[in-house]
């Protein structure tokens, strides 16, 4: 399937590592002009050395005012990938207020804010757009020691559906992908221990020996951003080997 984003400008958050970094590379391969946003300036600089054509914006998206300022001059955006995310894991009884605030600030609040800014720009230009939010399998099922994380990703799915409904008439599509564990640095945080990973792997109908690969998420995101998925909006797509179907 040939996918071209020639003439399109894309904004990717959480772009400095993991899934976000690979999404940036893929979008550039497909012809997009990419703006990469992340907190870690050093990692962004290393990404720009790999992909010199991109623009980079070091930015803490949890800060509402700084986000407004940082993205004020970003220019027209046609495609948005809300990938920035945070995981803080542990029993509910050990959750502290700071954990809740940090998780929702990144996983939900910043996603809502960046989407708002991009949608306002699309409406001002009367332009179509495509937005993909990186949610999680954790929005669809309960996971031990993931209570607040599950809640924050549940908010992502609910927002995705509501935004799709609101802006579908303007030809702005909003979808989400819901990966199972992907062994990025964040994925390894909760799933490196075979005693923890084993029971989860056994519940995946495809019966693979490892969790999802980064490229499997990147491929789905690329498709949902593209015109090949022009009749798809408001969808939360599990990339989980059938886990939530079992």
From TrEMBL:
Keyword Coiled coil applies: no
Coiled-coil intervals, chain numbering: none
Gene Ontology MF term list: carbonyl reductase (NADPH) activity; L-xylulose reductase (NADPH) activity
Keyword NADP appears in the UniProt entry: yes
GO biological process, one term: glucose metabolic process
UniProt keywords, alphabetically: NADP, Oxidoreductase
One Pfam entry name: adh_short_C2
Record InterPro entries: L-xylulose/Carbonyl_redctase, NAD(P)-bd_dom_sf, Sc_DH/Rdtase_CS, SDR_fam
Self-association state and partner proteins as the record states: Homotetramer.
Annotated family: Belongs to the short-chain dehydrogenases/reductases (SDR) family.
PANTHER family, alphabetized: D-ERYTHRULOSE REDUCTASE (PTHR44252), D-ERYTHRULOSE REDUCTASE-RELATED (PTHR44252:SF3)
Protein name per its UniProtKB record: L-xylulose reductase
């Amino acid at each position: 399937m040939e996918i071209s984003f020639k003439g399109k400008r894309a904004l990717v958050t959480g772009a400095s590592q993991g899934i976000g970094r690979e999404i940036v590379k893929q979008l550039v391969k497909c012809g997009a002009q990419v703006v990469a946003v992340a907190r870690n300036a050093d990692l962004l600089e290393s990404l720009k050395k790999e992909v010199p054509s991109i623009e980079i914006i070091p930015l803490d998206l949890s800060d509402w005012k700084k986000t407004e300022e940082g993205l004020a001059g970003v220019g027209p955006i046609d495609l948005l990938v809300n990938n920035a995310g945070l995981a803080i894991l542990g029993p509910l009884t050990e959750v502290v207020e700071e954990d809740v605030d940090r998780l929702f600030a990144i996983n939900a609040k910043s996603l809502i804010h960046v989407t708002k800014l991009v949608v306002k720009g699309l409406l001002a230009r009367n332009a179509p757009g495509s937005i993909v939010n990186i949610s999680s399998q954790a929005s669809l099922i309960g996971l031990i020691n993931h209570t607040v994380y599950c809640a924050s990703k549940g908010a992502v799915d609910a927002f995705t559906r509501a935004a799709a409904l609101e802006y579908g008439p303007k030809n702005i599509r909003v979808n989400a992908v819901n990966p199972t564990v992907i062994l990025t640095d964040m994925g390894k945080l909760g799933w490196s221990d075979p005693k923890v990973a084993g029971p989860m792997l056994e519940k995946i109908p495809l019966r693979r020996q490892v969790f999802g690969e980064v490229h499997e998420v990147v491929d789905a995101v690329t498709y949902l951003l593209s015109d090949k998925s022009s009749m798809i909006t408001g969808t939360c797509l599990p990339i989980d080997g059938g886990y939530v179907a079992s």
